[in-house]
Amino acid sequence: MRKHGRHQLESRSHYRCCKECCERCVGSLPWASLIATILLYMGVALFCGCGHEALSGTVTILQNYFEVIRAPGDTLDVFTIIDILKYIIYGLAAGFFVFGVLLLVEGFFTTGAIRDLYGEFKITACGRCLTAFLMFLAYLFFLVWLGVTAFTSLPVFMYFNVWSMCQNTSSVEGANLCLDLRQFGAVTINEERKVCTGSEKFFKMCESNELDLTFHLFVCALAGAGAAVIAMVHFLMALAANWGYLKDASRMQKYEDIKSKEEQELHDIHSTRSKERLNAYT
């Protein structure tokens, strides 16, 4: 019986220690920054992956159905612009991976600072300046992703018009509608690259998988850009709250330092007076 009771006490103590450890670990996680980081990575990955494949599909459609060829040399044409956009996508993927890590590390730092507020942890001005700088960057990147979202909506709108024409081929058979690349600025004014509704190229383009897949990839890229915008808003709220917490923690730390200093001075004054009375008595 004694061994059984001792075993129960040990198991309860072990369970209590594991529970306290888990609660401490869960409480120290910066959940707001963690959720925003996951959302940012998902949005950036969706935008970069789908955007890259959608641009490749656009190149295939231009070459196969509009018979657009790449200009020789270093001439700036639509294919060169698409290559530049792909390199921008590579830069966005790498840059925001690093930026997400920095924001997540700042969240862990601030959570630890608030948790150890009444301990030996010292809130420095460097930490507050770093949080303010990251908040400025988050606001700047929020504006950047707003522009990226607006820019991504343009090919979605154009492909939606083409996709709608293909879905309603029976209603546009009598009409003479054409898709002219000069209207979109893809070719120069002197070049005539267009596909009309009654032509064989139009029906081949509508029956192919490139148009449908490219359109839906651009839609997914637009959704990824929107998710990145929401993630930036989450980061802004988390960073603003962290900066306010750090500012209050710094004020509290100064108050504690002044209070302890005054108590030490009062203690020294009391000790000095006690010694003077003792000397006077002796």
Automatic annotation (TrEMBL):
Identify one Gene Ontology CC term for this UniProt entry. Answer: dendritic spine
Assigned keywords, A-Z = Membrane, Transmembrane, Transmembrane helix
Regions annotated as coiled coil = none
| Primary residence | other
| Cited PROSITE patterns | MYELIN_PLP_1
Q: Where in the cell is it found?
A: Cell projection, Dendritic spine; Membrane
Membrane-topology annotation of the record: Multi-pass membrane protein
UniProt-listed Pfam families: Myelin_PLP
Q: Where are the transmembrane segments?
A: 21-47, 87-109, 130-160, 215-245
One Gene Ontology BP term is:
neuron projection development
Family (UniProt): Belongs to the myelin proteolipid protein family.
What assembly does the database describe for this protein? Interacts with OPRM1. Interacts with palmitoyltransferase ZDHHC17/HIP14; the interaction leads to palmitoylation of GPM6A.
Q: What is this protein called?
A: Neuronal membrane glycoprotein M6-a
Taxonomically, what lineage is the organism?
A: Eukaryota, Metazoa, Chordata, Craniata, Vertebrata
